[in-house]
Every structure is written in structure tokens, then in C-alpha cells.
Amino acid sequence: MARDERIFIIILIVNLIVSLVYLLAGILFIVPAHAAAEKEDGAEILYDNRRTYLLRFIVMVLCPVTGPLFFFMGHLFYLVVFWRDVDLADVIFSKERVRTHMKADEERERDIIPLEEAILVNEKKDLRMVMMNVIREDFQNCLASITLALDSEDSEASHYAAAVLSDELNKFRIYVQRLWKQIQEEDAGQTECEEMLLDYTDSILKQHIFSAHEQRKFVGILTAAAESLYSKEPARFRLEWYEEVCLRNLEAKDFDSCGKWCGRMAEQFPEELRAYTCRLKLYFARQDREAFFETLGLLKKSNVVIDSETLELIRIFS
Length: 318
Description:
single chain; elongated
């Protein structure tokens, strides 16, 4: 065997031994040590997992000498450059919101028409343009309009609508289930998850884009989260949360639950217009004539500021 061949084989053997030592040290000692330190301190520690060491081992075996040298020099560079933690004591992170004013796209906005009109006209060019503009913007509050495009004769527009709805509704399902699980696991004094769920769910549920069965399911989760918050700290319950729970239960025809929350809202916010309008809607849907006119009379005698819609209602039934 030639001298060069022997040197080459020796290099391969040494490279294999070094790679194996690196793999075993990482898997058996380094990774468990970092994991134990993270569990003990309770703080997150960035470290390479076992899969990373295995991938590096493969690279080192397939690229003798250069592979180990590459990883060694990379680690050496890390130790030299990032040998100490960054001191952020003098760094100030401002929490003030910055409002960015962007120049209007006049040419684009001049051609914008409502999505409902584009569907009625059934012009493919207009419908596709509107769909793409909607997708580029914040479309969470216009999902109900997007559902209208599902029945469009234009297959491309209906595909856009189906893709947007499927993605957004799946995000909603996953996020609500995650919040509900956290609510069930949190301590007695914690209310953050309930408040997040109440703030998030109503913007989607009030658009009625789910099937009747799934809508009732999420209304049930919304009501349960509201009940959890009310049982912990009723003083934290906001007026808009009362209204959304009442209206969503009223739409689901759960009159008993709606009545309970209407009573709680009237008790906590007796001089608010919504405390009256929610009860009026409940009594009208339940066809409780006596309670409807009694509440209407109390509203007329109160000092509550009445909006134009409620004023028109009073004129009709007076």
C-alpha cells in the first residue's frame, strides 16, 4: 500500500473517531446538562438538540477534515465575538405607540368597489381585483362579505375566498381552543385568558360565518369564559363584554342564558343604554309583551342618552 493511501486512510479513521466523540459527547453529556440547567433555573436556555449533533456528525463524516474544522472555527468565532452577555441596562424600549401616516394610493382607491357589488355585477376582472385588495388588507372584519364570493361563477375568485376563509377560521378554532384550555388550567386569581378570549371571539362570531352547530359551540365557550371571569372578578367585566355575550346567546336562541346576562348587565350598569336595548331585544324575541313595554317605559323615564335607532323604536311602540 502506497504511503499516500495510508495517510488518507489514517485521516479518515481519525476524522471518524473525532466525529464519534463529538456526537457522543453532545448527545450523552452536553444536551442533558443544558436541559437540566434550564429546568433548574426556570429560564430559557438556547442550546443545540440531539438532532443538530447528529446532522453535524453526518457532515463531518462526509466532509473529512473540512467538516470538523468548519464547526470548530464557527464555535471559536462564537466564543471570541459573543464571549459575554450584552448589557441592556442603558437601552430604553419605548412603549409609546407610533402612528404611521402613509400616502394614499389614489389610483388604486379610485377603482375600489364594495365586494358585494362586484359579486352582483359578476364582472370577473372587478371581482378578482377586489378579492386581492381584501386579502392584502386586514380582512378579519369582512369575512362575512368574503363568504359571498364562494358562490361566484368565477372559479378563481371563489378559490381566493375559500383559501382565505379556511385559513382564518382554522386560526380562530386553534386560538380559541388554546385559550379555553389555559382558562381551565389557570389559578383562581388569573383572568387574562378570559379577557383575551372575550376580546377576540366576538369579532368573528358576530359575522355568522360558521355553521349553526359550530356557532353554538363557540358561543358556549364564550359564555363559559364570561362565567369564569364573572365568578372571579365581576368588577372587571366591561359593558361591551356583557353586550356581546347577551347578543350571541340571543342569536343562538338561548333565552335563559341571555336573560341572566342581561340582568347582570342591568345590575352593574343600570344607567347605560345597552343595558336597556339588550333586554328589549330579548323580550321582543321571546315575545314577552309585558316585560318589553315595562322596560321601554323605564327607558323613557330614565336619564339615559338615547341614540337615533332606539329613539325610532320608542316612536314605533309608543
